[in-house]
User: Fold this.
Amino acid sequence: MDAVKVLIAFYSRNGSTEALAKAIAEGAKSEGAEVILRRAREVVSPEIMQKAEGWIENADRMNAEYEAPTPADAESADAIIFGTPTRFGNVSSELKAYIDSLGGLWFQGKLVGKAGSAFTSTSSVHGGNESTVISMYHPMAHLGLIIVPLGYADPSLFKAGTPYGASTVSGQDNAPPTADDLEVARFQGKRVTQIARALKSVGETATKQ
Assistant:
């Protein structure tokens, strides 16, 4: 069986969600996955971006490092992990725009049976981490993904994160994810890869029969 391919499609403005994405990638790679890291692009004008300190500079840096996610990325992956900062307890418009672009694959059933998971970050305690991850469960269900939550399947979940997906709180000073946050994220990468491998094995066995 070929290596499991994991797409991590995220949006990050200040780097918190990006840091979780990179930790999830580390966890997936430790399980032998081929990881594709992609950053969703802005949907507002540079004039709007200039109103938030550091937005344009961070976007330029990350856009130079990560390609934009495409429907082809999702089709080729065995697992898709979405990441977003919270926006009023919901997914960001930038990531949502990418998810909406998957309509053609949805119509063809191309994503049915792949593993799906989600993670998030927020600037305030109780700022909607859990509701934001759950909001990403909705399109995953429509796309036919097999949703992979974390539960409390690893000791790290008793220190950080949520049973729905990895998370971090940056606070008003934009603090980076803690070591515990990153530990949960690495576990998420491992767990999703393990589930994706099992699903892929079942699919290949069924095809041969």
The CA atoms of residues 130 and 168 lie 11 Å apart.
